[in-house]
Write a sequence for this structure.
């Protein structure tokens, strides 16, 4: 990783944080196959999509770092930043102890990895793993027992990344997105 610095920030830096792109191209999805209507378990099978497409969460309504400040009280949130010299190249945002954030389930022993991103030119260099480790450190300091990570089955690269970090797939919701019926929510958990 060379001279990459991973550091803690607060949410006043979200505007700068949001300048690192989060968009990714979907070439395949993790198809959720239910065995015996789910009684026999689930199998996730990576299958190519008919036509590749781009997902950019920052461009979606109510999404993006600057909008989070308007939507939630982010006082308890953490920001992890990755820099190459003075250039911001990635980071993560962690939600914690925030009323109205459903992912936290009203619990103070769960934090949610709200967002993680690495600049295109720096991907596949171990920077995401270093950022993830800082997230774990941040959560442990707050005595959290779980780091919850919501992902979608069309973000295969992210799902493989979370599994590589030791996260366990804890929930599959086939019907989480009424406006996107072909997309399932996969919720990962890192035990702290």
């Amino acid at each position: 990783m060379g001279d990459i610095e991973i550091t803690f920030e607060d949410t006043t830096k979200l505007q700068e944080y949001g300048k690192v792109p989060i968009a990714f191209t979907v070439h395949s999805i993790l198809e959720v196959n239910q065995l015996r209507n789910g009684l026999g378990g689930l199998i996730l099978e990576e299958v190519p999509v008919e036509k590749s497409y781009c997902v950019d969460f920052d461009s979606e309504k109510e999404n993006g770092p600057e909008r989070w400040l308007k939507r939630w009280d982010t006082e308890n949130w953490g920001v992890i930043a990755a820099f190459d010299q003075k250039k911001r190249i990635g980071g993560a945002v962690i939600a914690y102890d925030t009323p109205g954030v459903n992912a936290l389930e009203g619990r103070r022993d769960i934090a949610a990895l709200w967002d993680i991103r690495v600049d295109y030119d720096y991907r596949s260099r171990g920077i995401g793993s270093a950022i993830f480790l800082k997230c774990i450190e941040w959560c442990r300091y707050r005595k959290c027992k779980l780091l919850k990570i919501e992902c979608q089955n069309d973000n295969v690269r992210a799902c493989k990344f979370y599994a590589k970090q030791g996260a366990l797939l804890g929930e599959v919701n086939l019907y989480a997105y009424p406006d996107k019926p072909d997309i399932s929510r996969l919720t990962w958990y890192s035990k702290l």
